[in-house]
Amino acid sequence: MPDPAAHLPFFYGSISRAEAEDHLKLAGMADGLFLLRQCLRSLGGYVLSLVHDLRFHHFPIERQLNGTYAIAGGKAHCGPAELCEFYSRDPDGLPCNLRKPCNRPSGLEPQPGVFDCLRDAMVRDYVRQTWKLEGEALELAIISQAPQVEKLIATTAHERMPWYHSNLTREEAERKLYSGSQTDGKFLLRPRKEQGTYALSLIYGKTAYHYLISQDKAGKYCIPEGTKFDTLWQLVEYLKLKADGLIYCLKEACPNTSASAGAAAPTLPAHPSTFTNTQRRIDTSNSDGYTPEPACLASPGKPRPMPMDTSVYESPYSDPEELKDKKLFLKRENLIMADIELGCGNFGSVRQGVYRMRKKQIDVAIKVLKHSTEKADKDEMMREAQIMHQLDNPYIVRLIGVCQAEALMLVMEMAGGGPLHKFLIGKKEEIPVSNVAELLHQVSVGMKYLEEKNFVHRDLAARNVLLVNRHYAKISDFGLSKALGADDSYYTARSAGKWPLKWYAPECINFRKFSSRSDVWSYGVTMWEAFSYGQKPYKKMKGPEVMAFIEQGKRMECPPECPPEMYALMNDCWIYKWEDRPDFLAVEQRMRTYYYSLASKVEDPLECGKGAEAASA
Ligand code: ADP
Ligand code: MG
């Protein structure tokens, strides 16, 4: 997760106080000279180092529970940049205002902190172990869910550390420490009987010392009188660097070997909403009595569902056993169709159903071609199937296969939450901007994949973004999509058709040229639809009026309350010349940075609090 201060030229990352002072000395010690560095003690905190009267002053900046930043006793600010900006205007208790940033010498990057590396490795391990993911699916899960996973593990990660012993008395702890090498600094940590308190046991000079760790009212951990930490693992990491009142600093972990000898791989706490396919198997033994699972978009009281908790995160064919049967054409007898229509279009209707595989049964959406259609329609549907068949990404609706029976049917993964624009209508109060950004970020991940594979979608719009749940979106409707030739960067349509003009870039309309950059234009319109909570783009204007509007250099206005960063990105998607527009590689990066910046602020403390609580249970 990028540090919210990473872009500041006067941010040095994780450097010591002495190093900070060296930088300030080199820069001349003028009054008001300052720099920012990472705080070792608090998760997400900083230290402001300032020169006044040829002396150094260091002010810790804490990140508060609501995601704001403040110097103790000072005003809260929404980010480290805003805080520095404020103190440059008003000293507000500091010896002087911030006058001159002590910028990093060119070529010097901010120093990554112990926790940055540790956290990345932990997020990776957690996702891998909890959802049993590998390869691309693992990478994408990390990219799309890092902030959520981070919150979840922040409070429970110590449980998987080798130094943590979940069930040990004081005597047993001493026995463990004394057995084997009695090196100074060998330590372990154990919970005490008294709820919420722990003991740190440490050996020094062949004697065991025990320190009480308690939590203050805000939930921070500390050894009485000592430095306070958000998590137990940070406390341990800090005490490895600095004794901070202990008899000696922590060195070697006295490992928890209660698990089977040798491979005592500690397991991470299970994410509570993880379930296996067997648990959620649908009973299809009696197709008449089949009632489909209702699309669950909100789950009050339950921890937030993550994409990886659903059965549609990985391909149903990711299991090698199932892969053996993978063919484009499916057998009708394995398909059960329910009498529920999910949607309809020119081609016919989309119905809900279940597809029986070797080891499992999966919910599917079945696009049924209406009767009495011409060969051209069949060919068109087969072309859509051919495109979808080549795609496999968590943020794209996957094709399971095609079934030719009473009608031609396209069998797809189920995304039962409906189209994005319909879901958002009237939900301004309920769905925060961060949730919208999360879904749009996922769409950008799916589009980046399409761009890499050299496919153009040609119909990206909020109506073709389907939800699995409130926090999980998939791109659908490949009816107009094309695979580009290996050396082509665009597709030229032979003639104009029934086109969604309001979503099309100028070169599509003027020259029938379609590329990933014209998909980027459509992505901008999709963003506008989402941030305006399902409004129709360009109001009542007709296609040709929109074209004239664009040619005049005009663009849609910023939707009310749409964050400026997001409106700026929309406008970049609507750069007239396609060569000057960002590609999806850049769009995804910007969406990610923005979404992480929001997600790192605790928006709904109840939601993530519950998740963490259940996870540690
Ligand atoms: P069209 O080409 O007519 O726009 P779509 O592929 O967009 O067809 O599907 C039309 C509607 O059917 C969607 O808006 C949605 O409500 C429903 N639908 C399509 N695919 C799925 C799916 N995989 N899961 C759930 N509903 C779907
Ligand atoms: Mg559609």
- End-to-end gap: 27 Å
The oligomeric status of these chains comes to: single chain
Spatial sequence of strands, sheet with the most strands: 4-3-2-1-5
Number of helices: 16
Radius of gyration over alpha carbons? 28 Å
**What percent of residues adopt helix (DSSP H or I)?**
25-40%
> What amount of the residues lies in strands?
15-25%
Q: State the secondary-structure class.
A: alpha+beta
Secondary structure: number of strands: 20
Mean pLDDT: 87
Shape category:
globular
Ligand inventory: adenosine-5'-diphosphate, magnesium ion
Q: Biggest sheet: strands, sense, closure? A: 5 strands, mixed
Low-confidence stretches: 259-301, 603-617
How would you describe what is shown here?
With 617 residues, the protein is α+β, with helices and mostly antiparallel strands. The chain contains 16 helices and 20 strands. The chain has a five-stranded mixed β-sheet with strand order 4-3-2-1-5, covered by helices on one side. Strands 10-11-12-14-13 form a five-stranded antiparallel β-sheet. Strands 6-7-8-9 form a four-stranded antiparallel β-sheet. A hairpin with a 6-residue loop joins β6 and β7 (198-204). The chain is globular and about 90 Å long. It starts with 16 loop residues before the first helix and ends with a helix. 40% of the residues are buried. The structure holds adenosine-5'-diphosphate (ADP) and magnesium ion. The site of magnesium ion has 4 residues, from loops.
